[in-house]
């Protein structure tokens, strides 16, 4: 915990900085918020096709349910713009409180939503609207937590501390999947009528806990210094798109690596249960165990990137996921539970964590403090919007055939390749002081004179 990155001299923390508290708050808040987000994905894969789209055949109903999962990602860029503006103009803390409240209210609304049989077409329409609210909230969640943690952290440990935001999302996935384990064991009739609602009702406790934790946060010293030295931007997005377009584009394209997560979490689960006919419970356990491994792998890779650089760690994760997805989907098609667990845990629990442990710092380090939250939020959420529809795209190209997994693996590898190209051609930032992040390379006075 006290080691430092070679090349950066240990620097004292800024007055008011508390990286441990910020990382803890980011972890807990992200875990609680993404619990809400991922229980929707699990329910969409397992039951929503029959609850809200019963008039369709099973394959079409599942596809429509997965499409509602993807719809949430459409609202993410809008949430990124609105919440990013608030965060860069009025502070990171306000965003972190607002996102968890909106997510909790929307999730509880899904839990009390009547089925198609009760209110007809209004049911799926309201479902989509609530999913849009979830997506809007998620649009500012990670960027707010990442900016908060990065700006509290010392220069040489930014990736380690920001990795806890992503570790929190893994914790949320563990909670979401674990809650569904006993629910999935209910008889079919009970599961479809009331059982699936239990995880959504539990979100009420999630909202209260996350709100209390995030209300206790202090604003970041970096943001307060920025406000004290200059007038905050009236329209941060104007400066962002005027001076940092290339960074936004890089983050956007690199963020499609999230397709690995959505394919693993949503499509692979649906494919295993609804197409191959595997049992729900062991497939849910794959996700639980993989995320348990990720809880420890994420800070490990974050700390590693503080020592050797962001790019080599990120590239290891992206290339590894492109290869291992073939093995994971093939093992599902074969029905071999041992191989499913091995490939799933190694790919998503360990190798994918190399990307998750790095990108919270790597993306944020591309922007100065004045536009960091807006830039990170907008870039990631457009990329995540693409990744959010990866399960729908996968379901459409694969169809209902057991052996049609190969095109899905190829599509996932293409997304990973896009990420590899962007990361490989980006600037290394792990040794850049926090105050100089996102700024043009400074030229010394003597160099300027010599150039004249």
UniProtKB/TrEMBL annotation:
Domain Major facilitator superfamily (MFS) profile, residue spans: 22-431
Compartment(s): Cell membrane
First-listed, main subcellular location of the protein, grouped into a coarse class: membrane
Keywords: Cell membrane, Membrane, Transmembrane, Transmembrane helix, Transport
Keyword Magnesium: no
Record-annotated membrane-spanning stretches: 34-53, 59-83, 95-113, 119-138, 159-182, 194-213, 247-270, 282-301, 313-331, 337-359, 371-398, 404-424
Topology of the protein relative to the lipid bilayer: Multi-pass membrane protein
Keyword S-adenosyl-L-methionine in record: no
Pfam families (UniProt xref): MFS_1
SUPFAM superfamilies given in the database record: MFS general substrate transporter
Protein name per the record: MFS transporter
Organism: Rhodococcus navarretei
UniProt lineage: Bacteria, Bacillati, Actinomycetota, Actinomycetes, Mycobacteriales
